[in-house]
Design goal:
With 655 residues, the chain is α/β, with parallel strands linked by helices. The protein is 31% helix and 21% strand. The strands form nine sheets. The chain has a seven-stranded mixed beta sheet, sandwiched between helices. It binds 5'-O-[(S)-butoxy(hydroxy)phosphoryl]adenosine.
Length: 655
C-alpha cells in the first residue's frame, strides 16, 4: 500500500478503561440515547456540564427553523462558568494558563488570578460605557490578555469579534464596520519569530479608512513598547484603564441565545460572513468535546496551537479548557523559532499531555526534521503525551503516520477532528478510548451529531459512494445566523433542495465496511490554505480592485504538499501580457496588493498572466478548466463550448 493511502485496517484502541467514553459500546449507547430523544439528550448534558443561573425548561426550539434555538429560557454567564465556578470548586490555585512568550519567557496564571484579571478588565470596559449587547473587536496576538479580553466581554454580555492579527487594515475595517463595534482592543505590536510586527498602527489605518464612527475607544495592551501614534481622544492604555479597577465584577446573566461572539469567515462570495454563536449551546459543546474528544482529566496539560483569531482558538483555548478547569499552554510565537524543534521542546518543558495542532504545521515540521537532525522530535522527551489531535484540513495518511510514530511514540491515539467555524466544535471525530483509528479518516460523528452524506436532492447515498456532507438535525453549538444577514444564512446553509439539512460545504465519503467518514474537500469556491479558509471570490475582488493594472482575474486552488492547497491566480492585465522579469515584477506587485487588501495569508502562490481567460460563449469563466491548468494536468475535458480554446495552451505554459 502507498503510505499516503487511507488505510482500511483500523488501528486498535489502546487500553483506556478509564476514558470518559471507554469503548464502542459506550459510544453506541450515547448515540442511541441521542437518537431516541435528541433534545432530551442535549438537555441532560447541558444540565450536567453548565451551571445555569435560571434553569432552562426546554431544549430545542425549532419553531422558527432554520433559526434554531437551544435552552432559550435559561440564563447563565460564560465567564462565570469558565472562571468563578473553578475557584468555587477549590481550583483557585490551579494553573489555568501556562503562557510561553515568543522569547521563551514563561508566565503562569492561576484560576484565581485569571478571574481577578478578567473582572478588572470587565470593569474597565464598563467604565468606558461598554454594555450588554455592544460589540467589541479584539485585534490582538496570542497573549493572556487576549483570553482575558474575550472572557471580560463574556462577563459583561458584550459580543466579541476577534480579528486575526494577520489581517490587513482594510479587512479589519470591514469587520469593525459590519459588526458595528464600539471599541477595539489591540496591542502596540506583536512579537512573532523574534520580529516586532505592528498592530496598533493597523488599527489606526483601519479607522482612517472610515466607516468606524461607532468606535469611541481603542484600548492598547503594551506588549513591546514600540513606538506608536497616539490619539488622546480615543486611545487608552490597557494597564492604566485596569489600574484602579476592582477584582470582582458581578457577571451579567444572559439568555442562552445571547450572542457570545461573531467570527468572520470566508464564503463563496466576496464578502466574509459574520458567523454568530450563542452562549449556552456553544459553551456546552466546547466543554463536552473538550472532555470526550480529548478525554480530558484533571491533571492533563492541554495545548492547542491555534490562534485566538480562528474558531479553534475560541473553542479550544479561550473557552473549552477553562470551562473544564484544565491547565493549558498558550503560545505567542511560531513553530520554527528559534528553531523547528520549538513545539517538541515546549511539550517536553511543560509536560504537555494532550496536543492539538494542524496538518500544515506537522508537514512543515516533518520537512524540517528530515533536513536537520538537531530539531528531530527524537531529541526531545515527549513521554508526557497521551493524546494527539489534528484540525483544519484533511491530514494525509503519511503525515498522520509520522505524527503517530514520531510524536506519539506509537502509543497516543490521534483525534482527527472535522468541524468548521459555523459548527462551534467537533462534528466528526474519533473518541480516543473508543474509536479504532484509520489514518486519513475523521471516523464517526460525535454522539448527538446527525452527520450524513446525501446527493443534490438531499437523498442518502450508500456507503462507498461520495456525496455532500450534511447534518440532519440541529445541534446546540451551531451557527445562529450571519450577523446582519439572515437571508444569506438561509441561502448558505439551508438551501431548499436539501430538506432542511445543514449544508457543511464539504464533500465526503463513508467507507463501505466501517462507515467511517473521509472528507474529500470543499464543494464551493472556498480554499483551505494551511488550514486558513479563503474565498476565491474574495481574492479575485482584491486583484481586480487594483484597477491601474488588472482587467480581469480568476482564482482557483491547486494541491500543495505543505499547505494543503495553494492559491493560483490567472490575471489579464490592462496592458500587454508580460513575460520574464517583467512578469515576475508585476506578480510581486500584485501579491503585495492582495496582502494589503486582505492580509499576507491571501497572497497567491502562482500568478499566471494571459491575454484573456477561458470563457464559455455566454461569458462565464470556466474555473474547472483553470483548476486543471493550475494542477498542470493535460486538458481532457471537452473545450468545444469555449469562446477561445487556444487560451488554455497559453496559460498552461505559465510565465
Ligand atoms: C473547513 C472549515 C475546524 C476549525 C478550523 C477550520 C476543513 C476542518 C478538517 C478535518 C478535513 C477539515 C473543511 C471545513 N476541515 N477540519 N479534520 N478534515 N477537513 O475552520 O476555517 O471554518 O474551515 O476546514 O473543509 O469545511 P474553518
Amino acid at each position: 500500500m502507498n503510505e499516503n493511502e487511507t488505510g482500511t485496517h483500523p488501528i486498535p484502541v489502546p487500553d483506556m478503561k478509564h476514558a470518559h467514553v471507554p469503548g464502542m459500546a459506550a459510544y453506541d449507547q450515547l448515540v442511541a440515547e441521542a437518537e431516541a430523544d435528541h433534545s432530551g439528550y442535549w438537555s441532560r448534558l447541558a444540565r450536567e456540564f453548565l451551571t445555569w443561573k435560571t434553569p432552562f425548561t426546554k431544549g430545542l426550539d425549532d419553531s422558527r427553523a432554520p433559526f434554531f434555538e437551544w435552552f432559550e429560557d435559561g440564563t447563565l454567564n460564560v465567564s462565570y462558568n469558565c472562571l468563578d465556578r473553578q475557584v468555587e470548586r477549590g481550583l483557585g490555585d490551579k494553573t489555568a494558563i501556562i503562557f510561553e512568550a515568543d522569547d521563551g519567557q514563561v508566565t503562569r496564571v492561576s484560576y484565581r488570578d485569571l478571574l481577578a484579571r478578567t473582572c478588572r478588565m470587565a470593569n474597565a470596559l464598563k467604565a468606558r460605557g461598554v454594555k450588554k449587547g455592544d460589540r467589541v473587536v479584539i485585534y490582538l496576538s496570542m497573549s493572556i490578555e487576549g483570553v482575558v479580553a474575550m472572557q471580560a466581554c463574556a462577563r459583561i454580555g458584550a459580543t466579541h469579534s476577534v480579528v486575526f492579527g494577520g489581517f490587513s487594515a482594510q479587512s479589519l475595517r470591514d469587520r469593525i464596520q459590519d459588526v458595528g463595534a464600539v471599541m477595539v482592543i489591540t496591542a502596540d505590536e506583536q512579537l512573532r519569530g523574534g520580529r516586532q510586527l505592528p498592530l496598533k498602527a493597523i488599527v489606526d489605518d483601519a479607522i482612517a479608512l472610515g466607516g468606524c464612527e461607532a468606535v469611541t475607544d481603542v484600548i492598547v495592551y503594551r506588549r513591546t513598547g514600540g513606538k506608536i501614534a497616539w490619539d488622546p481622544s480615543r486611545d487608552r492604555w490597557l494597564h492604566e484603564e485596569m489600574q484602579n479597577q476592582a477584582e470582582s465584577c458581578e457577571p451579567e446573566w444572559v439568555g442562552a441565545e445571547h450572542p457570545l461572539f461573531v467570527l468572520y469567515t470566508s464564503g463563496s462570495t466576496g464578502k466574509p460572513k459574520g458567523v454568530q454563536h450563542s452562549s449556552g449551546g456553544y459553551l456546552l459543546h466546547a466543554a463536552l468535546t473538550m472532555k470526550w474528544t480529548f478525554d480530558l482529566k484533571d491533571d492533563d496539560v492541554f495545548w492547542c496551537t491555534a490562534d485566538i483569531g480562528w474558531v479553534t482558538g475560541h473553542t479550544y483555548i479561550a473557552y473549552g479548557p477553562l470551562a473544564l478547569g484544565a491547565t493549558e499552554v498558550v503560545f505567542e510565537g511560531v513553530p520554527t523559532y528559534p528553531d523547528a524543534g520549538r513545539f517538541w521542546k515546549m511539550i517536553q518543558d511543560h509536560k504537555v499531555s494532550v496536543f492539538y495542532t494542524a496538518p500544515t504545521a506537522i508537514r512543515s515540521l516533518i520537512k524540517a526534521a528530515e533536513a536537520d537532525e538537531a530539531v528531530h522530535p527524537k531529541r526531545y522527551d515527549l513521554s508526557s503525551l497521551r493524546i494527539l489531535g489534528s484540525v483544519g484540513e484533511p491530514i494525509n495518511p503519511a503525515a498522520w503516520k509520522w505524527f503517530h510514530q514520531n510524536i506519539g511514540g506509537g502509543r497516543c491515539p490521534i483525534v482527527d477532528t472535522f468541524w468548521q467555524t459555523e459548527t462551534g466544535g467537533h462534528m466528526i471525530t474519533p473518541l480516543p478510548g473508543a474509536t479504532p483509528l484509520v489514518p486519513g479518516s475523521c471516523t464517526l460523528p460525535f454522539p448527538g451529531i446527525a452527520a450524513a452524506i446525501v446527493d443534490e436532492t438531499g437523498t442518502d447515498v450508500p456507503n462507498g459512494q461520495g456525496g455532500i456532507l450534511v447534518v440532519k438535525k440541529p445541534w446546540p453549538s451551531m451557527i445562529r445566523t450571519i450577523w446582519g444577514d439572515p437571508e444569506r444564512f438561509k441561502a448558505s446553509y439551508y438551501p431548499p433542495e436539501l430538506k432542511g439539512y445543514y449544508l457543511a460545504g464539504d464533500g465526503a465519503i463513508r467507507d463501505a465496511q466501517t462507515g467511517y467518514f473521509t472528507i474529500t474537500g470543499r464543494i464551493d469556491d472556498v480554499l483551505n490554505v494551511s488550514g486558513h479558509r479563503m474565498g476565491t471570490m474574495e481574492i479575485e475582488s482584491a486583484l481586480v480592485s487594483c484597477t491601474d493594472l488588472v482587467a480581469e482575474a480568476a482564482v482557483v486552488g491547486r494541491p500543495d504538499e505543505t499547505t494543503g492547497e495553494a492559491i493560483c491566480a490567472f490575471v489579464v492585465l490592462k496592458g500587454p501580457r508580460p513575460s520574464g522579469e517583467e512578469a515576475k515584477k508585476i506578480a510581486n506587485e500584485l501579491r503585495n496588493w492582495v496582502a494589503r487588501e486582505i492580509g499576507p495569508i491571501a497572497k497567491p502562490k502562482d500568478i499566471c498572466f494571459g491575454d484573456n481567460l477561458p470563457k464559455t460563449r455566454s461569458g462565464k469563466i470556466m474555473r474547472r478548466l483553470l483548476r486543471s491548468v493550475a494542477k498542470g494536468e493535460t486538458i481532457t475535458q471537452d473545450t468545444s463550448t469555449l469562446e477561445n480554446p487556444a487560451i488554455l495552451e497559453q496559460l498552461a505554459q505559465r510565465n
